[in-house]
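Risk mitigation, structural track. In case the binding assays with uridine-5'-diphosphate-xylopyranose fail to produce interpretable data, a predicted complex structure has been prepared as a fallback.
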Amino acid sequence: MVKKICGIGAGYVGGPTMAVIALNCPSIEVAVVDISHSRISAWNSDKLPIYEPGLEQIIQQCRGKNLHFSTDVEKHVYEADIIFVNVNTPTKTGGRGAGKAADLTYWESAARMIADVSRSNKIVVEKSTVPVRTAEVIEKILVHNSNGKVEYQILSNPEFLSEGTSIQDLLNPDRVLIGGNDSLKGQEAIQKLKAIYANWVPEDRIITTNVWSAELSKLADNAFLAQRISSINAMSALCESTGADISQVSCVLSKNTKLGSRYLNASVGFGGSCFQKDILNLVYICECNGLVEVANYWKEVIKVNDYQKSRFVKKVITSMFNTVSGKKIAVLGFSFKKDTSDTRKTPAIDVCKGLLADNACLSIYDPRVSEEQIRRDLSMNEIPWENSIMAEAMRFDGTKQVSVYEDVYEATKDAHGICVLTEWDEFKEIDYQRVFESMEKPAFVFDGRNVLDVDKLREIGFIVYSIGKPLKQWQSC
Ligand code: UDX
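Fallback model:
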């Protein structure tokens, strides 16, 4: 009987996942541990460290009952029957595989700590996305560092939640994937984890595989979704050159039951902590296995994403008479998608840096992202991946030319142009007549998410550029 679960890592995956387990398994004690004191105290406060619709209610319901947040990592690992590892696996920034391979430093230290403190058999669950065959490495670390009395079973149980809808995704998942060892003990461990999910997930949605299939499925899943966005974004470029309309093309494709209807929205590019990182990881694995053609195939998905961002920047600059130098440009939206405060790999970073490199003055407004976060993101010099066409912009730190506003009308006042970079619902409700009157003329709108009513904006007097839409009026200006 599983009595106690410990989740290591209190981030975007760990926090919500463990909270939903606690909610659905009242007889199990769930502890979420992290070495970061500030993060844990935020989880124990009224202002949670992440925003997710529905999360706060669950935390209020379970915290202090069967859900606890703590920095006493070792105590809770020692007591747990099952340990979920939800730590970060960023892309390596130095050494072999830099810019592509996953950095397993946090994972490795978690495994060594588990081996140090464990005195009873444990099931160790990989939740964070990891390179294929990580379970093997983790098992070696655990086995070689334990006293021989403790048995470990490693399971791969990748998380498929999306930010912004994580609670809904966790409460009603389309599938739960559990990969385990073929041995009898491996199968027993799978059944134990399956029984936990079966408290709220229908059994036919719980898929069991071997460990390697589960690990690879997660990478493949993200790679396929990202590839779909790059495919529609590549089509959007062609639409702009031919007069076709990407929304109409997407609509036609979405009615094809063989294709399905989701992930067909053209955009300024995909962002988020997973897509690029996981594809680069996949590329690295392919290269390590001598599969150069396969690696190159997946690299193109990221190349098209970079192309989409740089195409957008170019469009803004060329349409504003080939220079944005000294011009105020309002940026609406900074998070990588709506309903989240997360800015990891948000296309807004590259687009802003591209505009700053051309000496634009940016006034940024996002309903959820703090000024501190925006400044941190824009001053960071990320290592570009090997073929990045955004490399030059990514090195640019122009935070002095940046102002951050809490009011959309202040942000757009006296601006020459507006760039919509996140599809926040509230951007549809803005009084664009008022905005237009306060802007320099001609007033431009660049809709990087195709969320605005183009006809209405054009009626007001804006010059509007949308992704993958006919540019008739545009050309006549
Ligand atoms: C993704 C996967 O969906 C999820 O299964 C996995 O567990 C983690 O990675 P997430 O990063 O939260 O989830 O965001 P998602 O909703 O998939 O969007 C990723 C990016 O693609 C966002 O920047 C989004 O704006 C963009 N996107 C999405 C598009 O540009 N067009 C679309 O049609 C869909």
